[in-house]
Write a structure and sequence with these properties.
The chain is an alpha+beta fold. Helix content is 38%, strand content 16%. The strands form 3 sheets. A 4-stranded antiparallel β-sheet has the order 1-2-4-3. A 3-stranded antiparallel β-sheet has the order 5-7-8. Strands 6-9 form a two-stranded antiparallel sheet. Strand 7 and strand 8 form a beta hairpin. Helix 2 packs across helix 4 and helix 6 packs antiparallel against helix 8. It is globular, with a radius of gyration of 21 Å.
């Protein structure tokens, strides 16, 4: 969803043309397909609303967070399925907000500028206000350009190596902030276009599936997690393989900056 910000909103005065990213469990098509809960209908809404109002949803979420819920999720009713999806999307939102906070120094250059954290009531006619009725979202800078996944059809081959190298470099910049991103892929890298007189810029998006390094996590443990995830390889290896099949002659040299020497990682 694109948002045109009205003049006079001084707190986000730079956000003249922005993207509003919503974490709305009701219309998260792929998520609902993955969990086989069907499309959102009036029935789903009525069941969820009643579950929230009677206090069952809050207790169910608390049990999930404490790992106290022993029910087979295949036996969950509509209300519990909707509650789970709501909580899942709320966690995605919280994760992405935290990531943008940690990456503040990269905003506007390597990642989009973060303008605002927003929310609205999914059931505006309800007299009772409840946090479990809120749909959350974030207002971000609109990046004009194309996806790294479309590089071969959007940029001249002479620029492929530079752009791929920059995408790997930016991925590693994000890693420097104690972030492990489980959703690194070419589709989540945008190339901001400036016209013929300026080089295109790499901008990484989508941080809803991140994990943040704990203060007391050992270096060995962190390196192991990063090595297994191989974020830079998810860009470098994938793009080199894809473009070289087109005779693009793109080379990727892994940095091995998170090389793990534990038994699990060194045993073939």
């Amino acid at each position: 969803m694109e948002v045109n910000v009205l003049a006079g909103l001084t707190s986000i005065k730079q956000a003249k043309h922005s993207i509003l990213k919503l974490y709305d469990w009701r219309y998260a098509t792929q998520l609902r397909q993955d969990y086989d809960v069907g499309q959102w209908t009036q029935y789903h809404g009525d069941e969820y609303r009643a579950f929230v109002e009677e206090g069952g949803a809050a207790k169910f979420i608390s049990a999930l967070e404490d790992n106290d819920n022993t029910d087979d999720d295949r036996l969950w009713d509509t209300a519990r399925n909707e509650t789970y999806l709501f909580d899942y999307c709320r966690d995605l939102h919280s994760c992405e907000v935290e990531a943008y906070s940690r990456l503040k120094d990269l905003q506007g250059r390597n990642i989009p500028q973060f303008f605002a954290d927003v929310s609205f009531n999914a059931f505006p006619t309800q007299k009772i206000q409840n946090a479990l009725f809120k749909v959350r979202g974030i207002l971000l800078e609109l990046i004009t350009g194309y996806s790294l996944a479309d590089l071969e059809t959007s940029a001249h081959p002479s620029s492929w190596q530079r752009i791929c190298d920059e995408a790997v470099r930016t991925t590693n910049l994000i890693s420097d902030h104690g972030i492990l991103n489980k959703d690194v892929r070419p589709r989540n890298v945008l190339i901001r276009t400036h016209g013929k007189d300026s080089e295109d810029e790499v901008v990484v998006i989508d941080f809803a599936q991140c994990r943040f390094r704990e203060m007391d996590q050992s270096e060995a443990s962190w390196r192991h997690e990063k090595w297994e995830e191989d974020e830079e390889g998810a860009i470098g290896y994938v793009m080199a393989h894809k473009l070289n099949k087109l005779n693009g002659a793109v080379e990727y040299r892994p940095s091995h900056r998170f090389l793990c020497q534990c038994t699990k990682c060194t045993t073939v």
